[in-house]
Each structure stands twice: as C-alpha cells, then as structure tokens.
Specification:
With about 350 residues, this protein is an alpha+beta fold. It contains eight helices and twelve strands.
Length: about 350
Amino acid sequence: MTFFYILAAILLFGILITVHEAGHFFAARMMKIPVREFAIGFGPKLFSWKRKKHETVFFLRAIPLGGYCAFYGEDDTTEEYKDDPRAFQNHSVLKRLITIVMGPLMNLLLAVIAAVILYTITGVPVPSGPQVTFVHSVNEGSAAEDAGMLPNDIILSVDGQPVTDNLPALLDSGVPGTERSFLVRRVVNETEQEHTLTITPVFDPVEQRNLIGIMMSVVQPAKMVPGTIGQIMNNAIHLSYRAGAMVVQALVNLFTRGEGAGEVAGVVGITKMIVDEIQRTKLEGYLYLMVVISINLGLMNLLFIPGLDGSRILFLLVEGVRGKPIKKEGYVHAAGMILLFALMIFITFRDVIRLF
C-alpha cells in the first residue's frame, strides 16, 4: 500500500510540473513563438513524437520528477541562433514576457482548481459554535509549561469566565503574580478530557501585559456542508490566498532572519510528507497538498534567482527599459541552474539521511 502512496506522490509532482511547463508551451503557441522540445520527465527517453503541423518534438522521459519546454536559441551563449527567426530572443519582449509568466500563473490557477474540487467533495465550512482559543505551542520554562498546559489544548475559561477571543483581556484584568484557574480541553487517546490548571501569569515589561508563555490562535469551529458554486469558489480562492501568504511569510522569515533554513525539504522530504498526509487523510489531503505545493512552486519560480522564471522576467523588464538585451544573460541563467541543481542534490541527500 505504501508503494501506491509513493506513486501518488510522484504523480502529484508530474501534474504540477507538467501544468507549469504547459503554461509556457501554450503561451508560446499563442504568441507564435516556436517551441523546439516539450518533455514530461527527465532522463532517458521512453518515446517521442512530432506533429506534422508544428516543429515541436514531444518527449516522455523515464524520471517523472521534472520536465521542460525548450525554445530555439534560449540562453544561446554562442549566438548560433542569432539570425534564426525561430529564436526566442528574436521575438518581442512582451511576447517573451507573457510566455515566461504563464508558467507560474498556471500553477496558481491549478491551486484554485484543486481547491474547488476539494470543497466540492468535502463541502464548505460554516461556523458551528463560538470562537475558541487554541494553544499552538508552550514556551519552555514558562508558567503554562510548569502548570501542565500542552500544545493542542483549547482554553475554555479563566477563573470561571468563558474564553473565546478574549484571553489577553482576561489575563490583563488580573494582578500579576496572582494564581489563576484555567479550564482546558484536550484530546487523549481520541477522548476529550477537561483539566483545571493553576497558572500564575507574569507581567512582561516589554509587551506591557500579563503573559503565561504560549503561542495561541483564535479559531472558529466549523462543520462542512454542501455549498453553492459561489461559496465553493470563494472558499477555494481564500484557501489559495492563505497558502500563498504562508509561503511569502516563510520566505520573508528565511531571508531576513534565517528561520526555517534547516526545514527546507527536497523531493525525498516532500514525497514523505505527501505519503504521510494521504495515508492519513486520503483524497482530501492529496488535494490540499496539491493546492499548497502548487502555490509554492508558482511563487518560488517568481523569485529573482538565476535559473528561475523570476530571473528571466527581471532580465526581460531590464531589456524592455534599455531597448536591448543583456549579452551575458545566458551565462547567468546557466550558472544559476548549476547552483540550483547542486542545492537540490544537497537537500535531497539531507532528506535521505533524515529518513534513517
């Protein structure tokens, strides 16, 4: 059964990358830019075919973890295709820009489509009760940890006063250093239990408020009900937006504070995550991961890193302003691809080590 889940994970990679490259391909066709090769997968050729109407050669290759859409003279450092009307560089900046941008945009569109399918199957969430305060994590050595509070606890009340979205106000209403009675609900062995904890909040002079040492969020309990087309679309767009916001925030934290550098996963790590999730949640989890990973792939490709679509977009914008291309652009993209492959190999090796 695990082998089936691994195949499902590989299929997910194949779908995401094929959709991305298809975005480049169909945009090029619309812009009348000739495509030299279009391949699904890397490595040895399984078979190929060529339509009489177009010059493009289509390949299906053995390793289904990638793909490419190759243009004539793309990254041409020898100027072999300089005078060839088929060459990518011999088409207008606007046509090339649309062709490049459509790859990441197709991934963003795929995420919304997957989210629509997800909510069509599961229904849309509707509120089923008052807001609750959910404990994400408990700080080491904090008052909450000393009292026995655990991650995933739901705080029901403080000194008998119900907690919804008002925990900070309830904490600030007390005198620092005074014991408070917290009623929490937690799930133990699939059984809900309620526990009373005695916690003494500590006044933080920086935050200027009483704290107990937890990371929390206010969530709205919901149940899934069949939705209208409008409700399904609205929820699908919101889910895709939230997934995108998480990716952007993670990138900001990575580049500004170095947070999450040790948690970056490659093909092996992501495959394991997909397998674990679909073993637990089946089709719903598979579609949810398709949303998240497709958004991730689309946004990551828009980064201004040599070898990625974002770098090509930047060079095209500069060319549009200057009125002429940058001569060494091909070398920059080639060097970027080498560095990206080296990074991918390193991360994959680290993922393998983590498995054992």
